[in-house]
Specification:
The complex is a heterodimer. Chain A is mainly alpha-helical. Chain A has one domain. Helix content of chain A is 74%, strand content 0%. The longest helix of chain A is centred in the first third of the chain and has 38 residues. Chain B has one domain: Sandwich (Immunoglobulin-like). Chain B contains 2 helices and 9 strands; from the N terminus they run ααβββββββββ. The chains are: A mainly alpha, B alpha+beta. Chains A and B meet through helix 4 and helix 6 of A and helix 2, strand 5, strand 6, strand 7 and strand 8 of B.
Chain lengths: 294, 120
């Protein structure tokens, strides 16, 4: 039972992280209503995706052949990774230039395009891992002890997931917006890196990319990536106890590129220097009265 | 004023990209049908729990789920993750590995579903 609960929570944690951070971010924007529609649209699309994927995995719906599903999952991982990075950049730029943006139609159109990106990233974050949860829960239902356990696991598991979401929202209230945003950025970038690693590993598994050296080192005695805590760290950071060289190189390149580009975009919209000392920076949304965020 | 044609200017980059792209297809092309090893999963019990494979060679592993519940063949060591429905079968290709032990497990039956691949 505890194990089942843990699986349900872990599989939903990724979705909660993405949805939770975007929700907190959107809530303090003046055009929140529009964004929220796309956010919840993404959640709904993700739920549909999860069910369709689960049916394919269970072999009930076999529109995708064995490797077809592999390539589809690969595409989801890579698209999610790219879109999460893009979201981080978007959130940074937006806080800064939001008022200026309102004045230009072009920027408004660009934002509309981004809403669809947001919808897709949410749909994948929700759908990808939830599909496995659906199959897993189906397994509990089909196993011995079965049907009786299912509703309890489902309710408690979802409860744990929503608690995570709620904690994230509390985090955005209790912490200063600047701290929350900075922590969110790091968590999202780590997650995108982890997705990239798993995408590269899928490519190696499919024989598209060579592993080069496999494994390069072994730290499984220090932190085992197959255990509970190690496994969680692995899925959220890309940590591997026994990494192959190829994903290591890709991850290193990812961090070099992302940190260089972020350095160019500049400090988060919510800069720690008071506005008086940064005359060219448009006042950030965190300087809006706090009341607007409740 | 001498204008440098874009193709000239970007030639090295293009060449590198082309090489990188071409190299993607070299590995699968060279590999002949790798030897097949079989693994049966039955509601959290692997048979056998230890599989020996040769080092430095690609191998295929056929995982059949003969249990009543779905299973997920997962291994971070082997970079595999695959949901297999009851009665289903999946073949995964494992890259040439250095000698050592590589663990795999059934993520849906983590407590009992553990096994390892011994590369010699």
């Amino acid at each position: 039972m505890g194990n089942a609960l843990f699986i349900v929570w872990r599989e939903s944690a990724e979705a909660m992280l993405v949805v939770g951070i975007l929700y907190a971010w959107l809530r303090q924007r003046p055009d929140a209503a529009v964004g929220m529609r796309f956010l919840w649209g993404g959640v709904a699309a993700g739920a549909a995706l999860a069910i369709a994927l689960a049916l394919v995995m269970l072999g009930i719906m076999s529109s995708l052949s064995g490797t077809g599903l592999d390539y589809f999952q690969l595409a989801m991982v890579l698209v999610a990774s790219g879109l999460i990075v893009q979201m981080v950049f978007w959130m940074r730029r937006h806080g800064r230039t939001f008022k200026k943006d309102l004045e230009s139609n072009m920027a408004r159109n660009a934002r509309a395009a981004n809403w669809w990106g947001l919808l897709i990233v949410v749909a994948i974050a929700v759908g990808r891992e939830t599909a496995e949860t659906v199959v897993f829960l189906y397994g509990i239902g089909a196993g011995k002890g079965g049907i009786a356990d299912l509703p309890i696991v489902l309710v408690l598991g979802l409860g744990a997931a929503f608690l995570t979401f709620w904690l994230l929202q509390q985090g955005s209230r209790v912490l200063s917006w600047r701290t929350f945003f900075r922590v969110s950025e790091i968590m999202l970038l780590l997650l995108a890196g982890a997705l990239l690693v798993s995408g590269v590993e899928k490519l190696i598994g499919l024989g598209v990319l060579p592993a080069l050296v496999d494994p390069v080192w072994d730290t499984s005695r220090l932190l085992d990536d197959s255990g509970r805590i190690g496994g969680l760290i692995a899925s959220f950071t890309g940590y591997r106890a026994r990494p192959a060289l190829m994903p290591l190189l890709v991850l290193a390149a990812y961090w070099v590129i992302v940190s260089t580009m972020l350095g160019r975009v500049g400090r988060p919209s919510v800069s720690s220097t008071p506005p008086a000392k940064a005359p060219n920076v448009v006042r950030a949304p965190d300087s809006l009265p706090r009341a607007g965020r409740h | 004023m001498v204008a440098i044609a874009p193709t000239q200017r970007f030639f090295p980059l293009r060449a590198i990209l082309a090489l990188a792209f071409a190299s993607l297809f070299v590995t699968p092309a060279l590999a002949e049908d790798p030897p097949l090893f079989k693994l049966v999963a039955r509601d959290g019990v692997f048979t056998p729990t230890v599989i020996e494979v040769p080092a430095g060679k690609r191998v295929r592993l056929e995982v059949s789920n003969e249990g009543k519940t779905p299973m997920e063949f997962e291994s971070r060591d082997l970079k595999q993750e695959k949901v297999i429905p009851p009665g289903g079968k999946a073949t995964v290709t494992i890259n040439a590995m250095k000698p050592g032990e590589y663990r795999f497990f059934d993520e849906f039956h983590e407590k009992t579903g553990q096994g390892k691949l011994v590369v010699k």
